[in-house]
């Protein structure tokens, strides 16, 4: 393949084209045969597996248990909660035939599992001793997409969905916040994202929820991405499905439920948070290969450096570093360097005959930030495991700092409409707003920006609405931005 | 709940009723709202997760990579391989509507993924350098079931499906055998089953395969269960989907492909291999809790033993033992003992005030085999972690020995029809058979027994067919048995 076919469109030229170039050329995904469907290839799936393992550990550590519920849901279930069906009806896939016959009642493929899990919770909960019921499911869900986009909006995606039932509203809200904290920790500690946790405005709530919370990171084109949401359902689903427990006085009380989900969408968020014009940049915590070693030299020299590379890889793997040796004989070192840069590997080691003679390897970082580009650096092979563990830790925090700085540089506190328009054209605006749906709709129509969240950390503040001048709602500034 | 409601039907009285009692009362599963669907509850799902983790490690260690392919497959794909469509057509779920509109082409929910993965392999493979392509997917699949049975036959089940492509038939057959070995190791080492690896006769092959291999364990009612199968497809799917590579002479050559799957069915096999009239018996490698500690005593004494139980649990967990303390205040110790026996926990520790004063705990094994029942045994708390690690190892191998002995005791080498009929009524028959489909059908009609496999380890042998007297085929004896 010629060099120019492999290079990606610059972000500044066309961010959407850059994104597509990266996901296909790095072999993260491929298009499936059905409109809007996505094949996750091994390199992309490994990122998801690493993310999944981390989320799963945190979910179990907070007392939740995994379970599995059926893919197919009777159509009538979806209709029991009025807002829920209104929100999801346009996105449903419907099964009408099975085993060669037409079904008596059509079945829908789960777009989310509140209804079927609600039905089972009603069966399993009878007394306060059964509460809280803390469940989680890893599953595929399907929602019809008119304008699909790999990882971000596909007709099928993979996720976890937490579903819990509690005796009191306070317990359920505490759970909603616990899940939000969990997502925030995953996003910051593992994905190195600069996410802002906050509450959604009523217009942006989950269909059927009383309150919805979100974590929102900023992508490198200044847009926001909803990266994980948690919902307090109040008693809406409990009433629709009869999820009750015997209260102290012996009467049946409705449970308070929650749900929360994080999906393969995070992989898209990762790409758009850290990537650059060379391609992907992966945080070490989620990189399939954290270090790639490229042995250099032909013939006998090549055999020698390859065997040294394999030996070094074993030493690095023993230190817990995911290491790969690129020994493809038909490709030049230069091609390999570009290839692994495009595929976002944090650290590359070059191992030529001279390096080997000197007992060193040439280390190249995928990215430097906040300090002059250090170029390549010779490191002693003997000390490589310890040095690289430290390098990877530093790389991970460097990416977080870079994401925080980028977000902060593109977030503006605004008090006038022209300032607002300018801010959301390239990033986020922190603004006061009246909370009226009509005013929110006007803002969206003129700028495509929407309220991303009411940040949990925001200071109390009141004043005139950025758009219409009426008194502000929410008691603090909202984040407005364009979004995915 | 009264005691009699909790006890299970004896196996000897009604094995199917025993099975149902166990899966529901041990809270492994619940019935879903759609016919044939299954909800896997946390206790059952944890068994699956432990099995899954073990299989996944082995799959990765043998060089396979995980990926994910779409759930929905264009109906036309299923029709490209003639035998494949004939085999699966009666079991398909069909999606006709999405996003509120009728689809141009109906989509089927994957019953298995050879077709969609074949389509992608064709796209990804161009030269011999792309071979072998070694993929695996963890996924849900759906097959319409007229007579559903929890874990064994449900409309939806969870599994892994390996799919690989190779340059030569020899490479593909080696892969088919490697996967069979992998399954055999999982079944024997982890599930403590006495599986027999062998080849399927033509009538029992996977739809579209040239050769199918299987591992077959014997259940405690003498029936066989197909616990994992591996398939050599020859070039059938490669021809149907255009999976080719540029050969040395530059011409396009067809690849040789394989597929292999192991599913949640294994959990059913586990239950029917080890369970008894008290309920489940779980091999330690797959037990959600390997040890349950029941603190005994009321009031202050109860507080003391509970706190000692929690301390002991921490010590056991540090030694890698999955431990649970049953501190439910409203239940009696006797109830708890029965409950955890029914739920199959390998080892129970009782901790009363006198035990505590003596620095010991009373250990009870779920099952003894091949030696007199040791009853309860006092063990020193200080030494418990080391002792219990050894006990669990012994418990695991005891279960394997018990399964092997049971299978061997119920397997008979037969050379006459009356012997055959008697053998398959309670177990397996090792018999010579002519290989004629009509004769096989007659055997099935009269005894419900089918050829389970041609055991890999069988000695060469020829003679008259057990049923019709014609010369035998296959060059060795087959295992015949009734099956799930």
Note down, in words, how this protein is organized.
The structure is a homodimer of 484-residue chains. Chain A is an alpha+beta fold and 484 residues long. Chain A has helices at residues 3-6, 15-25, 42-61, 75-78, 82-88, 114-124, 169-190, 236-241, 265-274, 299-318, 333-342, 353-358, 384-409, 417-426, 437-447; strands spanning 29-31, 38-40, 65-66, 72-74, 93-98, 101-109, 133-142, 156-166, 196-199, 211-216, 228-234, 244-246, 252-254, 256-263, 291-295, 323-325, 347-351, 360-365, 377-380, 411-413, 428-431, 450-455, 478-481. The first copy, chain A, has 3 domains: 3-274, 2-Layer Sandwich (BirA Bifunctional Protein, domain 2), CATH 3.30.930.10; 289-391, Anticodon-binding domain (Rossmann fold); 411-481, C-terminal domain of ProRS (Translation Initiation Factor IF3, 2-Layer Sandwich). Chain A contains 15 helices and 23 strands. In chain A, strands 3-7-8-14-11-10-9-22-23-21-20 form an 11-stranded mixed β-sheet, sandwiched between helices. In chain A, strands 16-15-17-18-19 form a 5-stranded mixed β-sheet, with helices on both faces. The two termini of chain A are 32 Å apart. At the A-B interface, strand 2, helix 3, strand 3, strand 4 and strand 5 of A face strand 2, helix 3, strand 3, strand 4 and strand 5 of B. Strand 5 of chain A pairs antiparallel with strand 5 of chain B.
